[in-house]
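Forwarding the complex inputs:
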Amino acid sequence: MSILTAKETAKNETDLVEIISGSASIVIEGGGTRRIGVTEGEPLSTRGLSGVTLYEPGTLTLVAQAGTPLSEIDVLLAAENQRLAFEVPDFRGLLGRAGESTLGGVVATNASGPRRVAVGACRDFCLGVRFVDGRGAVVKNGGRVMKNVTGLDLVKLMAGSHGTLGVMTEVSLKVQPLPETTVTLAVPGCDAGEAIAILSQMLGQPYDLTGAAWQNGEVLLRLEGFETSLRYRVERLRALLQHDVVEHWGLEACDPIWRGIRDVTAFHGRSGDVWSVSIKPSEAVRVLEAVQPEDVMFDWGGNRLWLLTKTGTDVREKMPSGHATLMRASEETKRRLGVFPPQSPALERISAGLRQRFDPEGKFNRGMR
Amino acid sequence: MDMPAPKPEILSRKSELAARLRAVLAKHALIEAPEELKAYECDALTAYRCPPLLAVLPETTEEVSKVMAICHEMGVPVVPRGAGTSLAGGALPSEDAVILGVARLRDVVEINTSDRYIRVQTGMTNLAVTAAVEDEGFFYAPDPSSQLACAIAGNIAMNSGGAHCLKYGVTTNNLLGVTMVMADGEVIEIGGAEMDAGGLDILGLICGSEGQLGVVTEATLRILPKPEGARPVLFGFDSNEVAGACVADIIRSGLIPVAIEFMDRPIIRATEEFAGAGYPDCEALLIVEVEGSDQEIDDQLARIVEIAKRHNPVAIRESQSAEESTRIWLGRKSAFGAMGQRGDYICLDGTIPVGELPAVLKRIAELGAEHGHMVGNVFHAGDGNMHPLILYNANEPGQLESAERLGAEILKLCVDAGGCLTGEHGVGVEKRELMTHQFAPADLEAQMAVKDVFDPKWILNPAKVFPLDVSAHRRGAA
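Prediction (whole assembly, two chains):
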């Protein structure tokens, strides 16, 4: 169950414009499965804006309304041997939610899983967007082609904006063919420093790792592609590794491992706050030494650290560089520390200026800024 | 193509402006002699020329900041310029504008191969970035065909792609952070060496903004390990439809070629005469390149050949060596030169959904015949980024205008087919007036509202991207 009960459900853009003009403060809600900010305002559900409007497997393009359930898209793509390349995390277990994730929520939070290290984030696969802004204007930007520099790129701006600029109604995405097979190399017995050294060395090799993580003292490296090619790459990586290595071949063996990383399964049901830290891999060990978390996991080759910390720990004040998002904590802690990383005064001014233009009355997702 | 009339109140203050700029710049960084200003009168869209009021070539971010502060205070338009290779007139000055060139900002600031990034000043050329990390086994992925000359500043402004972006993405997918000078001279940092910055994706907004939002002086770029090797295969087909269907099948197969290039008959003929690459005489030609070890390349090429054979190609040439690879690429790489040999040309870069390819090519041929211009098509087929080359004779009155009319028809066709006006060159002045064909008034208003936030006085590249009548009110407010 979502923690909010949707009061208004928009069925189309016209509806949406009407609801927005009649509301003072709105919390935009798809499935409510990945909202991390504090909730301030009346819920507005986008679930009525549902359905895939276009899917062309031959051009790797999918266009769907923002309220379309992610599961519907996954099933549709799987039938054509395709998938969303950016490996959408399922945060229901981590955040203790039970709703049905929607495409709009995925894009609004730029939800990106382990494959990001190779292919990029959700925002890198967003080709186009339609949204209704706070003044009721219906805006489209981008399109459904892979390359597009026609005008300013508001698609990127909307992706990851946590619903603070407008209500997305439709998104176009680039999708990806499924690989023939996959393999995961597990290197046990590595501390954080060794892990970073291995991850950086391996990501510096031309073997297109599509996963590079570390948890429970185990470095995890994933390859995807044709089996003949993977056999060769595994041999090369093993020659470089000089450690004991366990190979897990095939989707059935690899899927649970990478779901665990993607969804941060190791932290589910455990008490404490959860932080997502964005950092240069070479700074990761310093962060751990300074923060002393209860538990830790590296993803994206050490570019992202998942930290489980004692309740109320301010991770940001201990960080040498990079930034941190408070993914899970009590409302009190969220309000005290802030969910999103603070910006420089200049960027804060620009962000406020953008919100002012798109949402002059400050109606949208006040708790997500 | 129209440009707004220069503002007399700016022209009349030229010497005051020059004196103020001279005071904050190093010696020789201010260019004011008419014969020297001529070098800045156009970019690679050479059909349009206009010497700027002044040009400056700062050597530091601080100098860029001072220049911007002065121009902002005096309300003088600033046209940022990288290496001047824009095909869309992105760096075309106006009579009352200062050209701000970043050509002297060419240092490598930091190389970090363990975290896989490089920090450079943006006057560095695209190829020089790769050269800086090559010895360590890395490269910078976006590879616009002007990469020998074009600057990273321009790559960011136009979100440049290249032949290999099918696998590696375009500039926005490889840009981690920038130092940017705002319209009023304030220096800001956006992003950094991390994979993403917190907050709104301002970096995503900056990339491809055509100098509308600020002047980027430093950039942190993602670098990648150099592949073990790469080799192409070439296929000839007797129709564009069949070649198009073959492209779709390759894309669906799960193979990830680094490039799929398409050439049509007019281009094949022109390049054969010009470069003699030994291409088959056919309707459509595909070059597909894959990367990996020798064995992996053999394996991938075998799979691609198998897919292509289902479409009855009239020719297959699989490269087994570096020399053969060079020959296969020779014609494609000399395509623009070959067309240039036949006359002047306009190069467009409208992008279409790949499935629309045969229909769009057919219609382009019809439009070409109607307008009396030969049109050749080379393009990045994997992502639908077309490059129709329209031939015309610049010495014959009316020919440029007629070629431009045809170009506009072709770009509208791309939009109507579900695509866009420009895939990698940018709007500049060239496609400015066509923006209303792709965008509704509310769409353009939203984009201009973003510019308002960054550049309230509209002094940065003000007569670009947005149709003149649509932006008139804002530009007048300067």
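The first strand of chain A starts at residue 8 and ends at 9.
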